[in-house]
Design a protein that fits this description.
The protein has about 325 residues and is an alpha+beta fold. Helix content is about 25%, strand content about 25%. The chain contains eight helices and 16 strands. The protein binds zinc ion.
Length: about 325
Amino acid sequence: MDDLKRSLLNVFTYSNLDRMVDRRKDAEHLASLQTSLSARFVLFHQDQFLMSEEPNPAPVLVESGSIDRWQCSIETSVYLGCRGEHNYFALEIGDTSWLYGNFSDNANFVELRENGYSLKAEDATLLSYAKAMFHWHRAHGFCGVCGAATLAVQGGHCRRCTKPECAKLHFPRTDPAIIVAVTKDCKCLFGRQKAWPQYRYSVIAGFVEPGESVEQAVVREVLEETDISLDTVDYHSSQPWPFPGSIMLGFTATASSYQIRLNDGELQDAHWRSVDEVVDGLISGEFRVPPRLSIAYRLIEDWFNEHSSRKLSVVMDDLGIVRLW
Ligand SMILES: [Zn+2]
């Protein structure tokens, strides 16, 4: 399996959307698309998307003719791209009062984190993309150069400073972060932060700093948090992580020793675990893994499945462990 195929197994990475990068710069073309029969809008409100729960979780796709009911302007929508016969837009709305009593299919505003794993892969990816875009828009309402207000242009893929003598163009940002499954012999290194749900453990993660390569960030984070030096570092896969706006770069690594010391205090606890010890912890309830939609789970799953005759997902299903947020 190559890096692309491995990454595509991660939630939020399904790729059947044409982002229409060239056409989205054409304001006239976009305006006609927004009001066309091909337009479908996903609605966003207070960090949640309008979704229906029955028969399966899915985003409610609103046609342009129905947008007026939401008392918002389609001109502020973000163009996500084209898939099949539809053009997808994301729209942040301020008033949800129209919703209640007008949807018969159990539609409600739901956090993507809650049901991202249950959505169809293409829908989870679409909403993840939209969520990251809204996060960027919210944080860039003012020009970082001169402080004047900025205005969304190019279908929401650029913000232009409104001060004529500046006119700086600002483009969407994503923060690179590394996440790494560190192993030695048949054991994997797990850590937990104090703020996490009780008994939740994960692999080591942290943001890439300016002036370092992603591999250097892997080595630094593991050393900072656990005092463990690495012998090897290998790329695994990546996952956009819109909580709020990161790209997770997944790695595997081998440690040079077992000796742990919690150097920077970021972790409350860290320890090594074999697959049997993972299963024992899951059964007793004193060890929990990250949610299945995360690349953290994927890294743990790949390590576990390599060293076990039973797949981690089967063990979890047998124990009835579905949602851990
Ligand atoms: Zn400016």
